[in-house]
Every structure is written in structure tokens, then in C-alpha cells.
Request: fold
Amino acid sequence: MFVIIEPCPWLGFTREESESMGEKEITYHNKDVLSKILAENFKKKSLSVYGIDVPRIKDVLPTNLPAVQANEMRIDNLFLLMDGSVALIDYESDVKWTNNLKYLNYITRVLERYKKRDMPKKVRMIVIYTADVERAPDEFSVGCLTLKLEQAFLSKIDSEEVVRQVTARLERKEALTDEELMKLIILPLTYKGKERKEQAVREAVELAKQIEDGEEKSFVLSGILVFADKIISAKMAKYIKEVLKMTQVAQLLMEEGREEGRQEGRQEGRQYQLISLVLKKLKKNCGVSEIAEMLEEDEDIIQRIYDAAQKYAPDYDETKCAELLEQMELA
Reply:
């Protein structure tokens, strides 16, 4: 099923290089968590915010493509678009002709996946360049074969304007738009130089922490962790994962609180209904034992309701009886 994204935690590193990165490595468990968060939130999003004119994302596909060599690198992202085409996305911080060999390898492996089912309508090779690259060839030809690339240059994004807009909206306690969420994820890569990128990671994370919606906050934090993996230090990666974990725990507690509230509400509704039934029986001069038997309730419970109701006889105001009974329970 093409429903779970497995974002490449190495973003350009071989598996062996990634495993040598020590505590910075994203574990398989963490990858699964990030995958599910990104998969759900990328659906129906547009890549146009990065300068890529393609249809919206319909689904997120797994990136564990069939291997031809044991040490092959994984692709960064793989999307199914609304027009039925498949988009392979890779991020680059420099221009090398050998990158084209990597792209051809990716495409071959995607086609390998589809050889036993209907071929995709179209395969798109999309390359997103960090702000370090302002132009690059969009075609690679060796006579019998021509590779055409769809490119996006993050140098065209006004980084400071993105920060200003996002900051202003968060200060007003407003929800970020899809475009602002997508730009915040990619913000660190819109700056030139490693040091400035690292600083931008910290800035983006601090902005993300201010997002009130738990799902959107998790989406942005996961995106930063995956897309800026090359430039994130081990310490920062650990910090982001801690914030992400706290966000998910907070969401779980909120949901548990909502469920407890629903249960309490149902319980209060049942109690109020019982009080109403008992009062109706009292108006008909029924006794405690008789009412308990008729309603199949514990006689002690009916007695407590009866005692509270006597203050408001013979009208037996339901609301006042319920309030008095609650006060008696708390006393």
C-alpha cells in the first residue's frame, strides 16, 4: 500500500555513512513515527510554495525502492500526485554531473516497483536546490537518453519575509496557512552557508514550538528533522525529537482529557435522568422502596435523592434538587 512515507534520514548519505553518525542517526522507530506524521500532513499539499509547478500531492509513497546494489542511497521523497504521476524529489546543495547518475538510478528503481502493476502515468524527477545553488542544468543527455529535471531554487524564497510573516501570525495567535507551514519546514535550507543554516534550524524550531495545533506542530518539527538532516547537529536533532515527543504526549493527554470529559458528561446525564425519574414517582406519592424496585436501583441511592428532594416538595424542582444532591455528595 502506498500510504506510508519513509523519509530518507540520511539525505544524501549512504547507509554506511549514516550508521557512522552515532547518536544523530534517526532510528527505525523514529523513522516510523516521522513517516506517519509526514504522510498524513503532506496529502493535498502543493509544492508550488517551493517554486515547483506540478499538481498537488495525492499520497506519499514509501522510499524503500528495490535495491540494485547493497549500498545504494535512498531517495529523499516520493509522492503520488493528483494527475497520477509519480514525483521523485531530491535535495542538493551543489551541482555535480554525477548527480544525474543517481537520479537515473532512482527512476529505474521506481519503474522496477511498477513492473508487476500498471506503470505510472508519468515519472517526474524534481531537484530542490538549497540557497547555495542559484542555477543548474535542467537536462542531461548522452545521445540515446535524455533526462529532464524539474527544478526549484530555494534562493528565490525571501527567508526574512517568511520569518516575519510566520512570527506575526503566531503572535496574533492565528493558525498558519499550508503555504506558511511548508515554508517553515524548508526555512533552514533557504539560507546560504552551513553556520547560517544551523542558526536557521534553531529559529525554525522555536517558531514551530509556538504553533498551538499539535498536529501542525508535529508536522513542522518532523519536516525540519527530515529535510534539514544534513545540517542538524546531534544535539539539535535530539532536542527536536524531545520537543516532538512532548508535543505528541500533550496531544495524547488532551485527547484523554476530552474522553474523560465525555464520560463525565454521560455520567452526569444518567444521574440527572435518574433524579428526574425519582421526582416523577415522588409526585405520585410513591415510597423509596417502591421507587427503587420500579427503577431497579439501589435503595440507598433513591433515599439520598428523596432526602434532597424533600426541601423542594411538592413541586420538586429537578435542577435545584440535582444541585442540592451534588452539594450533599461533596460535603
